[in-house]
Amino acid sequence: MQVMSALGTIPAATDRHIAMTTTAQQMAAANAARTGFVIVNDTAVNAWIRFGAAATATPGNGNIKIPPGGRYEMPLVVDIRAISIIGEGAGNITATEYV
Predict the structure, then answer these.
(1) DSSP strand E in 1-99: where?
(2) pLDDT by residue for the chain (99 residues), tens digit each?
């Protein structure tokens, strides 16, 4: 169900809670209808994400670091590829995908 605001239609959202580990895993499948994505790192360790390939816990090659307590909000150009995540330790990640 879509909700109207003074700024227009707010897209439908899917909330996700991911048990992050030190092994890369898919946190969201590719989605051509995606209009946005927000990830909050609720852990005490760095989280790394990557679009379209397995994330690694190292800078470069498209890996994006989200520090403890940090958040990643997809910019205006929305990437519809699958999203992979890996942690420098274990913890729970919260994410919301908008379609």
Answers:
(1) 3-5, 8-10, 13-20, 25-28, 36-41, 47-51, 64-66, 71-73, 83-87, 91-98
(2) 444 444 566 678 888 898 999 999 999 999 999 999 999 999 999 999 999 999 999 999 999 999 999 999 987 788 999 999 999 999 999 999 888
9, 27, 39, 32: CA torsion to nearest 10: -30
Torsion 38-39-42-45 (CA) sign: negative
**Long-range pairs for 26-30 at CB < 8 Å and ≥24 separation?**
26/82, 26/83, 26/84, 27/83, 27/84, 27/85, 27/93, 27/95, 28/82, 28/83, 28/95, 28/97, 29/82, 30/80, 30/81, 30/82
Domains of the chain (ranges; CATH) run 16-98 (2.60.120.770)
